Each structure stands twice: as structure tokens, then as C-alpha cells.
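Morning. Coffee machine broken again, so started the prediction first thing and wrote up yesterday's gels while waiting. Chain of 311 residues, entered below exactly as on the submission form.
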Amino acid sequence: MISNHSATRVSFLIAGALCLSPLVSSSVALLLGLFFALAIGNPYLPTTQSITPKLLQASVIGLGAGMNLEVVARVGLHGIGYTATGILLTTLIGLSIGYFLKLNKEVSLLVTMGTAICGGSAIAAVASTIRAKAPETSVALATVFFLNAMALLIFPALGHHFGLSETQFGLWSALAIHDTSSVVGSALAYGGKAVEVATTVKLVRALWIVPVCIAIGFFFRAGKKPARPWFILGFIAIAALVTFVPVLAAPGKIIYAIATRSLVLTLFLIGSNLSRASLQQVGMRPLIQGVTLWGIVASVTLLAIQAGFII
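Came back before lunch.
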């Protein structure tokens, strides 16, 4: 007869394995982890707490294999002005909202960066850079995933309501929706040209993870010693290899696919490392910050596109 503890251990391993398959999305993985943490218990807690930061950094490095630096350079030069301005203003507004809400500064930074750049991937990279705790990372991720789901439902309808062209909608999706998957999903409901524009612009925006993490690593103090996000160099190196060594393009796609799934597994582990007490300490304020900041970014971006400031 199998004991309850043994059943929990087996169930945990099965859930982790499922996270490596396309059957489980990043948001579902986080929810699975939270379910184990809050309802059943994480039977491997010391182990998962130890390996999660390492797996997170390895996943971020692997994501670099999905970057074509030539495309990024070509498109990035066209939109570098409004992209840099948007990220800077979003950061200032987001951190101001967090300060006003008296939110934990790590959580505030994570939610802000997730909104400013590219959702879960940015949160994962910044969390590793500042050595954020599991509750801080999980709450920021949950906030972003909730807003991603909302975007899939409301963005296409709003785009049609405001009479946006496919190009305009692709731009708006890339600049105002957090995660790439939700950007593509929203654009798919609008048209092929919208998908092309949204995917390219989001790819460029995602690369801003690199300078942002480097800046945060040198200026954000985690304890007494400022963090050094050396794993970002790995991200750049693998992106450069895949871009400029043609024979590595095909293996790069495999590495990117593996990294994408390992990041989903990492989100499961992050969720499983939580506790009720840690979640209660954070409260609802991150969601208030995330919704407020997202509303501002989406509204201002839409107005700028309609006015022709962003093309």
C-alpha cells in the first residue's frame, strides 16, 4: 500500500515532468506549484529551493538561442527611441506606484520590469539578478499572468473598436501586452500582418532584458553586495553564436525550445517553494500596482499609435 507521503512525492514528480511537455503553459505550471505548496505540501522543498535559482539562470541563458541579433538590430534601430522612452517611463511610473502603495521594493521592481519589457521572462531574469525570494517572484508572476489572460480576451475587441489597422494592432500588442505568447495569441485573432509586426517588435523589446539586468545588477543592492548578473553574458553569447554561425541555427532552435520548457518547469518550482504566510505578507498590492501600471501603459501606447507618434 502506498503511503500519502509517497503518493505526494510521485505526484510532484509527475507534475514536474508534465511541465516539460507542451501540455502545460507557464501560468498553469505556476498554479500547479502553488497547489502543491498551499494544499498538499512540497515533498522536496530543500532540494527545489536549492536548484530553482540555478535552473532559472540556465533557462534565461538558453532563451538567447531564440534571438536573431541581425533582425533585432534592423528593427531595433527603427524603434529605439520610443522603445527606450517607453521602458524608462514605465519603470518610473511603476516604481512610483509601488512606492505609493508601500509595496516591497523587490516585488515592485519585478512587476514593473515585467510590464516594461516582456512579462515572465523579464521577471525571471530580474529576479535572478536581485536574488528575489520565492514569494516575491511568484506574486509578480501571478500578477503578470493574470493580466496576460485579460489581454487575450479584451485586446482584439478593443482593437476593432478603435479601428486599428493590423500593423497598428501588432505594435500595440507588442508594446502593451506582457508575455510574447499572449502577444502572439492576441495578434492571431486580428490577422497575419498583426502577428508578423507583433512578433518582431516583441523580439526586439525582449532584448532590453540585457542592459536592464546589467544596470539593475550594478545599482540594486541585494544585502551588502551588489549583484552581478553574469548569466546575462551567457544570454548574449548564445544569441551571437546562433546569429553569426549559420551551422548553429538549427541546434539553436532546439536549445531555445528546451530553455522555454525548463523555464516553465522553473515556474512550477517557484510556486512550489511558497508558503501561506509568505503570500499573506505580500497581499493584494502587487495586483493593484500591476493593473494600474498596465492600464496606463496600454492607454498611452494606444493614443501614441493613433496619433502617429509610434509607427
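Residues 166 and 193 are 6 Å apart (CA to CA). Going to sketch it on the whiteboard this afternoon.
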